[in-house]
Amino acid sequence: MRQTAAGLARAIDAALSRRDLVEARVLADAGLRLPRRTPALAEALARFHLAHGRPESALRMLSDLPRPGASTRHLRAVALLALDRTIEARMELLHAAGPEAPAESRLLAALLAWEAGDHDEAASLARSVERGPWAPLAEVILTALHVSAGDLEAAEAPAARLHALAALPGLRQVIRLFLASLGLRRTHEVPDADPVQVSELSDELAAAPALLARLVDESRRTQDRSAARLLRCVLIARIAAEPERSDLIVALADLTDLLDGPVIASEVTRRGLADHPLSATLRLLDEQFRRRVENVETDAPDGATIEAGAATHLRKIAA
Q1: Which tens digits make up the pLDDT trace of 269-287?
Q2: What is the DSSP letter of 132?
Q3: Dihedrals φ, ψ of 262, to 5°?
C-alpha cells in the first residue's frame, strides 16, 4: 500500500508539473480512495487542490499528518494565505523556516515578516537564500527592503548581485524593469520576446506574482510600450496556465489599454467576466473602459479612471 501511495504521489506531481490537470484529477481520485495516505501523497493531493483554487480542501488533506515537516508546513502556509489567514500562515512558517527549511519557505516567511513590519527578520531570512534557483527572488526582496527604508546606497549591492544572477536574457529584462521601478536603474528599450523567452519568463514569474504586478504597474506609470508588449505576452502565458486567476486578466486589460486603447481593452474585460462573473475589479474596469469609449470628449487625462481601479488593485498586490 505504501508503495502504491508513493507512486501515486509522484504521478500526481508529474501531472501537475506538465499542467495536465485531467490526468492529475484521475490520479488524485485514486489517491483519495486509499484507506491510508503517506505524507508524500497527502502533500501531492494538497498541491492538486491548490492548483484548482481549493485551499480549504488542501488544508483538509494535510490536517491529519501527526508530525508535519517543513514541506507540509509550507503547503499549509500557502493554503492559509489563499484564505487570507496571514497570522496563521506566518506561525506555520516560523516552524518551517529554519536553516534546513526549503528556500521557498524561508522566502515566503521573509515576505510575511516584511508585510508585518519586521524588516530585520525579513532581511535575515532573505539573506539565508544565497544560491540556487530562488536566489534572484531573495535579492529582489533585499533590494526592495533597502529601498523601502530609503537606503538606496545599501540597495545597490543586492541589485548588482541580482544582475549577476540573471542568466536568462528575458529575466535580465524583467530585473532591469524592477530596478528601474525602484529608482535604481534607467529602463532601456525591451525588444519583443520570442515564444521560448516568454515561456521561460512565465515560469520564472509564476512564483513571484507581486513582482509581476509591480512590473505591470511600472509599465503603466512610465508608458513603456516595449516593456508592456513583453509583459502582455507573459500574462497571456500565465493566464493559460492559471485560468482561475482573475487578477491576471485585470493586469492584461490594463496593459491592453496602454497598447491598444479602451475599445480593445474592454474586450479583454468582457471575456474575463464570462469566466469570472463575480470579480468586482473586472466589472469596475469594464465599466470604466465602456464610459471612456462612449464619452470620448471627456477631459480627464488618459488612464485617470484606471488609477482608481486596476492600477490601485495591482499596487496593493505589489505593496
Answers
A1: 888 898 888 888 889 888 8
A2: S
A3: -70, -25
Distance CA 184, CA 24 (A): 43
Which pTM value belongs to this model? 0.50
CA 226/CA 230 separation, integer angstroms: 7
CA distances from 95 to 171, 249, 271 (A): 32, 35, 43
Give the ranges where the chain is alpha helix by DSSP (H).
2-17, 21-33, 39-51, 55-62, 70-82, 86-96, 103-115, 119-127, 135-148, 152-165, 169-181, 195-206, 209-222, 225-241, 246-260, 262-275, 280-294, 304-308, 310-318
Cell numbers at residue 261, please?
Answer: 486603447
150's torsion region: left (phi>0), alpha (psi -120 to 50) or beta?
A: left
Q: Is 54 exposed, middle or buried (0-12, 13-18, 19+ CB in 10 A)?
A: middle
DSSP per position, 178-247: HHHHTTSS---PPPPPPHHHHHHHHHHHHT-HHHHHHHHHHHHHHT-HHHHHHHHHHHHHHHHH-TT-HH
Q: Which of 69, 76, 17 is nearest to 40 (CA)?
A: 69
CA distance 159 to 165: 10
Which residue do the cell numbers 534557483 mark?
133
Question: What are the Cα distances from residue 214, in Å, to 1, 33, 178?
Answer: 47, 43, 8
Residue listed under C-alpha cell 485514486: 30
User: Which domains are present in the chain?
Assistant: 1-96 (1.25.40.10), 97-165 (1.25.40), 166-319 (1.25.40)
Residues 114, 293: Cα–Cα separation, whole Å: 41
Within 8 A by CB and 6+ apart from 20, the residues are none
Per-residue model confidence as pLDDT tens digits over 193-235: 555 556 666 766 666 666 777 777 777 777 777 777 778 877 8
